[in-house]
Design brief:
8-stranded parallel β-sheet; 5-stranded mixed β-sheet
């Protein structure tokens, strides 16, 4: 029999409220996935689901027998939803995030390093594109948006479950580790002389992307071994950071494929 939640004083209700804040997510090492697709993807990808909450009027079309399920009064559920058109289902998911100190550079070939990317939509798109275009891992600096922000989770479209993400406190040590392992540290800059399309990339690359407004910080720029610019054909002055990252990663992945095929 399902367990019903009918009061805002219920401990489960209060706990989900806490998970809507960065501090609550960090303290409990849990985040929320909302919507039929998000919850379904979490189940399909073997996420560590603590429990699922469904709206009383929600019609279940997926087997949830492997999950602990609570049924919540419609008005209570609606007070928890983070989307305008909520579909009446959400999951509480346990997570574990690792520091870049625990990384073994020899296990990776293409790594994305994000230097203070602050927009949730950009972060989610970067995670999704990194997954789609074959990046092995993502490293986020301490100035980045919380990757378990509901907007990040939604826009990542389950890719947050597919690619390892590490936090970084000391770029100098992190990049030093990768340089020692033979990685090229590639940063994008509007004033760089090298064109991203024409340059060559090593077999192992850390691609660095910077803040939406300020780009790559001076401290991180000094650690880059290659500076490139994305050629602009139209009149726009710049590209969205998620778009720029996708273009760069595509260029790198195409060259990797050609090397494997012996075309380079």
């Amino acid at each position: 029999m399902p367990v019903y939640i009918e009061s805002s004083q219920n401990s489960i209700y209060k706990h989900i409220k806490k998970l809507q804040t960065k501090n609550g997510r960090s303290k409990n090492s849990q985040y929320l996935a909302e919507g039929v697709r998000a919850v379904g993807d979490a189940i399909s990808n073997g996420a560590d689901i603590e429990y699922v909450i469904i709206k009383k009027s929600f019609e279940i079309s997926r087997d949830l027998s492997q999950c602990k399920v609570y049924v919540m009064e419609d008005s209570l559920f609606d007070s928890l939803k983070t989307t305008v058109n909520s579909q009446g289902i959400l999951a509480v998911i346990n997570y574990e995030i690792f520091s870049s100190d625990s990384m073994n550079a020899d296990e990776f070939e293409t790594v994305i390093y994000l230097d203070s990317v602050t927009d949730p939509g950009n972060m989610g798109t970067i995670i999704r594109s990194s997954d789609a275009l074959g990046a092995d891992a993502i490293i986020i600096s301490k100035g980045c948006v919380d990757i378990f922000n509901p907007k990040v989770v939604r826009s990542s479209m389950a890719s947050i479950l597919n690619i390892p993400i590490f936090t970084d406190e000391n770029p100098k040590d992190t990049f030093g580790m990768f340089k020692s392992a033979g990685f090229e540290i590639v940063g994008t800059f509007p004033d760089a002389k090298e064109n991203s399309r024409d340059t060559s990339y090593g077999e192992k690359v850390v691609l660095v992307m910077g803040n939406e407004a300020n780009g790559i910080s001076e401290d991180v720029e000094r650690l880059c071994t290659k500076r490139v610019t994305i050629p602009m054909m139209g009149r726009a002055e710049s590209l969205n950071v998620a778009t720029a990252m996708s273009i760069m990663l595509y260029e790198i992945s195409v060259r990797k494929t050609k090397r494997i095929r012996g075309e380079m």
